[in-house]
Amino acid sequence: QGRMWAYTAGFTVLPHVGGFLGWFVNRKEIPLWYEKLKKPSWCPSRKVFPVAWTVLYTGMGYASYLIWNDLGGCSSKAIIPLGLYGAQLVLNWAWPPLFFGARNLKMALVDILCLDSLVIGMTCSWYRINKVAALLLVPYLGWLAMATCLTIRIWKDNPEQKPGKRE
């Protein structure tokens, strides 16, 4: 029982690690660069992002635990469902360094479009295994839809500067 608690906590915390590191590394770029970008009127306030990501990472982390547990750990049956999860986590964690760190709006857009595809595939894969786990991903899918539209708008409305022309 004690070991299962540790697994539950570990899976739930894991997504937060990359999210926190992405924020920590890029935190100075937000007030210096991001605030100056042209953004649509429906862009959420900066204060919403940490709250949203805390909820989303917690949900996806716990859902990954449910899948891992239902498939008996790291078994051969878990390779695709948890492989999709791992791949989407990598793309999720790659977005802030691409967007804020490299200020590469085009690559951030490519990243999030690939991320969308992986999360849709992951959700479909997980639905067959554990419907609750798949349903825990629905808020993430909704947020990604908004974030993808926001990334597209920011990319379109803010032509990229030539390399070396940082403010």
Automatic annotation (TrEMBL):
Cell compartment(s), UniProt: Membrane
Organism domain of life: Eukaryota
Transmembrane portions of the chain: 6-26, 47-66, 78-95, 135-155
Pfam family, one: TspO_MBR
Any Gene Ontology CC annotation: mitochondrial outer membrane
UniProt keyword annotations, A-Z: Membrane, Transmembrane, Transmembrane helix
Principal cellular location given in the protein's record: membrane
Bilayer topology term: Multi-pass membrane protein
Annotated family: Belongs to the TspO/BZRP family.
Protein name: TSPO protein
Organism of this sequence: Piaya cayana
